[in-house]
Design a protein that fits this description.
Elements: E1 8-11, H1 17-28, E2 32-37, H2 41-53, E3 58-62, H3 70-82, E4 87-90, H4 105-129, E5 135-139, H5 153-173, E6 179-185, H6 200-205, H7 215-226, E7 236-240
Length: about 250
């Protein structure tokens, strides 16, 4: 029996990159997996098809997390169709950068809606249904520990907010055995930040290992936190960043 057999996980932003890798890895560990998408329906369904081809169970949910009710609705659909929720992985977000003076109010509101508000609302909804021993895992950023230069104010602000939220969740839900953690990726080779991109050499130079990580590096850390090994880890961050913040 796999370590997550009988568990149900919801991953926001699970159609590609890190989200897709986490969906497949959690499914391989035995969990039934729900994953949300906002635009890439074909990619989300391809992830679900891969999971089902390997004998797993997957649910694809459309969720525009800029809308206030979307995160709660995704949790409720997961519980309704898969029977429960044990693991919430808040992965959806925007990779946003640019000069401070160029940031518009609309852009600010959009980033905070997805990267912060939806995380709070999903956690609030999931906590209503989780049994003792549940997991709430949010995907942060290496900018939580080190901002390497200008143009990252919005992303650094939004992702750092997850730390305070996670500490509060850990204290609030700890008596029920529910843990809350943040995983902070460093440079990860995805279509949003390819290892062959124009800033890749600079990003590699900031790491101790001198290379990009893979989406599966993040998926492995999340699977650990979601499983029995993560039961005493809460209210903290786990840097999976190749030594970016060393």
């Amino acid at each position: 029996m796999s370590e997550l057999t009988g568990k149900v996980a919801l991953i926001t932003g699970g159609s590609r990159g890190i989200g897709a890798a986490m969906a497949k890895r959690l499914a391989a560990a035995g969990a039934a997996v729900a994953l949300t998408y906002v635009q890439a329906e074909d990619q989300a369904r391809a992830v679900a098809k891969d999971i089902e081809a390997d004998g797993g169970r997957a649910l694809v949910i459309h969720a525009d997390l800029t809308q206030p009710d979307a995160a709660t609705a995704a949790v409720e659909q997961t519980v309704r169709e898969l029977g429960r929720i044990d693991i919430l992985v808040n992965n959806a977000g925007f990779l946003t950068y640019g000069p401070l003076h160029d940031v518009t109010v609309d852009e600010l509101d959009r980033v905070l809606a997805v990267d912060v508000r939806s995380v709070f609302l999903a956690a609030q909804a999931a906590a209503r249904h989780m049994s003792d021993g549940g997991r709430i895992i949010s995907i942060g950023s290496c900018f939580n520990g080190r901002v390497p230069g200008a143009n990252f104010v919005l992303q650094a602000m939004a992702k750092t907010a997850l730390i305070g939220l996670t500490k509060g969740l850990a204290r609030e839900l700890g008596p029920r055995g529910i843990t809350a953690t943040v995983v902070d990726p460093g440079p990860i080779d995805t279509d949003m930040n390819p290892a062959a991109g124009e800033t890749a050499d600079f990003q590699r130079s900031l790491t101790a290992l001198g290379r990009y990580g893979t989406a599966d590096d993040i998926a492995a850390a999340v699977t650990y936190l979601a499983g029995p090994g993560g039961r005493y880890v809460t209210g903290t961050t786990l840097a999976v960043d190749g030594g970016y913040t060393a």
